[in-house]
Amino acid sequence: MVQKAKILLVDDRPENLLALEAILSALDQTLVRASSGEEALKALLTDDFAVILLDVQMPGMDGFETAAHIKRRERTRDIPIIFLTAINHGPHHTFRGYAAGAVDYISKPFDPWVLRAKVSVFVELYMKNCQLREQAALLRLQLEGGGGGKAEVGDAKEPAGLLAELSARLAAVEEQAEALSKQLDDDSADAAAVATAAHLERKLTGLRRALDALEPGTGNNGAASLPSQN
């Protein structure tokens, strides 16, 4: 079972949160509400999120300040933030949003189809990264001796068989990542989304090279280095 991605919705108005839930429910992911910047920061302490939809105009800690706190934390600094605002103060206001770390800045009322499409891109990128981490973890287990020797002899897979399975799984992720990159090119997507997709492809290339180096006859004897997950 593929675990659903979590999307954080931050707005002090319940009716706005309800509207966002109605728009994004078609994505079939886990939607988490936060009615303030403080509440959003608490949620980010324990859960991982694919993307954050953050209202700019909130009493107390506004969206800009909330984003600044998110970007200062190592755990959350790479989570994409989409700012939502009902007030258009001109280019300087938009620039402040991007300077705070937002990947997009959308004025209300927004097109539900556009918002859903933008969020779905970041959800897909998040899921691909999760799959990549899973493949890397499986490969590390193999390099370390199949989980420290705890498995029963009859249950252990031959190295060649495990490498073939990992290669097949990686090929499926590579195919999906390639399709996603083509979609981003066709749709003239945001530069941040394109850059994230390119970063994912680089990590996939590194993992593929590590797997290829472990194939019999390479002479590396399992000494290939794994791509960094940073």
From TrEMBL:
Chain segments annotated as coiled-coil in the UniProt record: 163-190
Keyword rRNA-binding applies: no
Keywords noted in UniProt: Coiled coil, Phosphoprotein
Gene Ontology terms: biological process: phosphorelay signal transduction system
4-aspartylphosphate PTM sites in chain numbering: D55
Pfam families xrefs: Response_reg (PF00072)
Domain annotation Response regulatory: ranges: 6-123
PANTHER family, per the entry: RESPONSE REGULATORY DOMAIN-CONTAINING PROTEIN, STRESS RESPONSE REGULATOR PROTEIN 1
Protein name (Swiss-Prot/TrEMBL): Response regulator
Source organism of this protein record: Streptomyces montanus
Organism phylogeny: Bacteria, Bacillati, Actinomycetota, Actinomycetes, Kitasatosporales
